[in-house]
Write a structure and sequence with these properties.
Elements lengths: L18 H31 L13 E9 L2 H7 L8 E10 L5 E10 L3 E8 L12 E8 L6 E3 L5 E5 L5 E7 L6 E8 L6 E7 L4 E6 L2 E5 L7 E3 L8 E7 L2 E6 L3 E6 L5 E8 L5 E6 L5 E6 L3 E7 L5 E8 L4 E6 L5 E6 L2 E6 L5 E6 L7 E6 L5 E6 L3 E8 L48 E4 L15 H10 L2 H18 L1 H8 L1
Helix pairs in contact: 1-3, 1-4, 1-5
Length: 501
């Protein structure tokens, strides 16, 4: 609609004053302020969604700085072996884990050519500096004869689980001697040779989750022969596992992912999603469990957001030149790393911006394992070509300070499983002691998948970010909305009344 008004601007005295013009102009200014307030509100919500508080910001310069490195060779390994065993060549660094206080790095490795052996080593990492060329080895111990591509180390570093990939054994080792050596805790000998290719400690290391074929199960350490099968078996072999709190994520060789909620073992629910077009190689939860990072043999890493109802929304695709073998969240939750081939890429978790990339000294190798130091300023990287390398993260603040020298407290080894204490569940409604071989009743509640995906999504995810923030920030929305209304009433309605008068 065109209003019949004519403006003559030749002199101020001839300017025609029309009340509705002022109203429109003031409405425009008010709407501009409202728009800015809305943008601020969404920005605050997005920051909350990503776990970043106001003023934290990003370091001005974040990058990898090469630090100490270790090159394994069969001659040195044979010299370290107290029993004089023969070791083959080409060491795979299969698992890495720092102790919670940062004093030690625990590493498992396997030699794959010649006579295969699997071993564990411990290193002093209490006072690392970028100028170091080596780190002090505290202990070497042979575990079994054979090649293992994967191993699981508990958070305290005092227990290790090994599974024979194409065999019927699952080994558990526990630090139990006065010297702190790992002793065989138990051996699960299955009746067939179904593939064992994934396992991880869960629920504060009190239970072990493992996959045999497509079936995911839990082992109660208090009764080692009893396995609790979880609902939602995969159509193909389970190859990747990760957990955070009551959440257990698993991925198979067909590209599917399941996330089980273990809050109540009598009514286990799970969600499922077709996440990758090929094998799921690695999974990693954010420290708060709100996000899940997945890596696959389809050369993709994908970032998922867990909604309030437990559904997962895809918020970012990241494409690479090779298989994504390992993904890992930083302990601070604001960054993550993705490994493909000999390279490790560092990302900002909030907007998925790539900050830096490291390439291992042997650029023909493949990264097999990653571990962040608990202080957040170091990354340990192991490959399939004899190398263990440490990198300092320049620009990262220290999350903790290592104040003591590494010690490994011996654990008393029970002589009978009947006297073994039943571990307490964390945040679980049913005590572990209530499960026996004939009492386990597990009913499945399958939550229908609600997955937002976009195969061509290369950047962004702003809408998913805003919605994810809004779903989990109702109180803040209410507070900011109230402020919004008050400002609206003060800036708009009084002025409109004056102009009409």
């Amino acid at each position: 609609m065109t209003l019949p008004c004519k403006f003559e601007l030749q002199s101020p005295s001839r300017f025609i004053k029309i009340p509705w013009v002022k109203i429109v102009l003031k409405r425009s200014r008010a709407l501009t302020m409202i728009s800015k307030l809305a943008g601020l509100m969404l920005g605050v919500l997005a920051s909350i969604s990503h776990g970043i508080t106001e003023g934290s910001g990003e370091p001005e310069d974040v990058k990898f700085i090469p630090g100490p490195a270790i090159k394994f060779d069969s001659t040195e390994l044979m010299e370290l072996d107290e029993e004089g065993r023969t070791y083959g060549s080409q060491t795979w660094v299969t698992a890495l884990r720092f102790k919670p206080d940062g004093s030690e790095l625990v590493m498992t490795g396997s030699t794959v050519l010649g006579i295969p052996q699997t071993f564990v080593q411990r290193f002093n990492t209490c006072a690392l500096t970028p100028t170091q060329k080596n780190i002090h080895r505290l202990r070497h111990q042979h575990l079994i004869q054979g090649v293992l591509q994967k191993a699981s180390i508990c958070s305290g570093g005092g227990c290790v689980v090994l599974g024979i990939t194409f065999g019927s054994f699952l080994y558990s080792f526990l630090a139990s001697t006065d010297e702190g050596n790992l002793m065989e805790q138990y051996l699960l000998n299955f009746a067939d040779s179904t593939r064992n290719s994934a396992h991880t400690f869960i629920l504060d290391d009190t239970w072990l989750a493992y996959g045999r074929g497509g079936q995911l199960s839990l082992v109660n350490p208090a009764n080692q022969t009893v396995g609790i099968p979880l609902p939602g078996a995969f159509p193909s072999d389970v190859l990747a596992l990760d957990s955070q709190g009551p959440w257990l994520a698993s991925g198979d060789e067909g590209g599917d992912i399941r996330v089980h909620n273990l809050t109540n073992l009598s009514d286990i629910s799970y969600v499922e999603m077709q996440a990758h077009s090929d094998i799921v190689r690695s999974l990693s939860f954010s420290p708060d469990g709100a996000r899940l990072l997945s890596g696959g043999r389809d050369n993709l890493a994908r970032l998922w957001h867990r909604e309030a109802e437990g559904h997962f929304t895809l918020i970012q695709n990241m494409a690479f030149d090779a298989d994504v073998d390992v993904v890992l969240y930083h302990p601070g939750g604001e960054h993550f790393v993705v490994a493909e081939g000999p390279r490790v890429h560092l990302y900002d978790a909030a907007d998925q911006t790539r900050l830096d990339t490291l390439t291992m000294a042997n650029n023909m190798s493949e990264v097999f394992s990653l571990a962040f130091h608990p202080n957040g300023t170091w990354l340990a990287v192991g490959n399939n070509r004899d190398d263990l390398e440490l990198y300092s993260l320049e620009g990262f603040p220290e999350l903790l300070t290592c104040s003591k020298q590494p010690t490994l407290q011996p654990t008393v080894q029970p002589t009978s499983t009947a006297t073994m204490p039943s571990p307490a569940f964390t945040s679980l409604m049913i005590p572990a002691s209530s499960f026996t071989e004939h009492q386990v009743v597990v009913s499945a509640t399958v939550i229908p998948p609600f997955i937002t995906t976009d195969e061509n999504m290369e950047t962004g995810g702003d809408l998913g970010t805003i919605l994810g923030a809004a779903l989990s920030s109702g109180v803040i929305i209410a507070t900011l909305s109230t402020t919004f209304v008050v400002i609206y009433l003060k800036l708009i309605k009084p002025k409109r009344v004056v102009e009409k008068a």
